Amino acid sequence: MDLATVLWLHKGVGNAAPLFMVLVSLISFINYFRGLGLDGNVIGAVVVGEIMMLTQASLGLILLVLGLWPGGWGIHFLYGSLSVLFFPALWAYTRGATDRRASLTWAVGGLFMMGLTLRAIGTAG
Fold this sequence. Notes:
The chain is an all-alpha fold. About 80% of the residues lie in helices and about 0% in strands. The protein has one domain. The chain contains four helices and no strands. Helix 1 runs antiparallel to helix 2, helix 1 runs antiparallel to helix 4 and helix 3 packs antiparallel against helix 4 (about 100-120). The radius of gyration is 15 Å and the shape is elongated.
């Protein structure tokens, strides 16, 4: 893979991430307002979102090794690192709970992840 392809993939996954995080939040809010806890849809979406963030970080590290640094690299790496660590940290915080309260927690967490990904895009330069 050449530099242009890796950069194109990094931008594409980065642009898809906020939309996907809104989807995670929307599914969780629907469960919460229906009086349900977490189900396989939410947990599956969270796993796919985490895989998306790990792929994004891997592509970013490849770009870094190839010598392409973002404009605001320090803050960009901070937001990127937080976006990779947030879902596992939220899972640890909720201790794997699947009750109604956990649905609300994951809904707000999805919105927070959307904000992190948008800030990462904004600091990419």
